[in-house]
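Weekly structure sync, notes
Attendees: PL (lead), two postdocs, one rotation student
Agenda item 3: pending single-chain targets
PL asked that the sequence for the first pending target be pasted directly into the notes so everyone works from the same version. It is reproduced below exactly as submitted, 164 residues in total.
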Amino acid sequence: MYHYYNNKIHLVEDLLLEAFEEAEHITARAMHSTEPPLVRLEQYAALQLESWVRQPFGFVLFKNWFHSEPILVHYNERLLASIHERLYKPVLEAVGEGIRSGQIAATQPGTTVSVFFAALIGASGAYIGNKDSDGAINPEEWIRDVITVLFKGLQTERHPKENK
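Predicted structure, written out during the meeting:
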């Protein structure tokens, strides 16, 4: 369907609103399940990464919000408040639940969520910016790799870190 825009700001606003709505759907789908917190967070991360690769405006929305960069829309303050309430807070609550249940390392929940989003946004920025280059891995394999590193770490069980 074709829609004419008087200016680029209205086009960007619509694209960001669509990205927000998709992120909200993903958040509700992953966070409102009966799965344990760590499983919900892993599902959330995979769904969000898949969405960002498919539709990079979702990535732009999160990147700008996370880095406190301006989101150039007329309803900026309302959008930022909605991102915090509907997208950030459910993840924070799942992390807090995971910490209380012993599934997630005992840290400040806000710190863990910041690292979680930093990993997703940083990895996505590197991939999305280079996915057309020679040798780039396919999106499904890339998402699997990011999830593995994020949720299982860098070391293998067979080669634990040596204590010196």
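Discussion points:
- The mean pLDDT is 87.
- The radius of gyration is 17 Å.
Action: rotation student to compare against the earlier draft before next sync.
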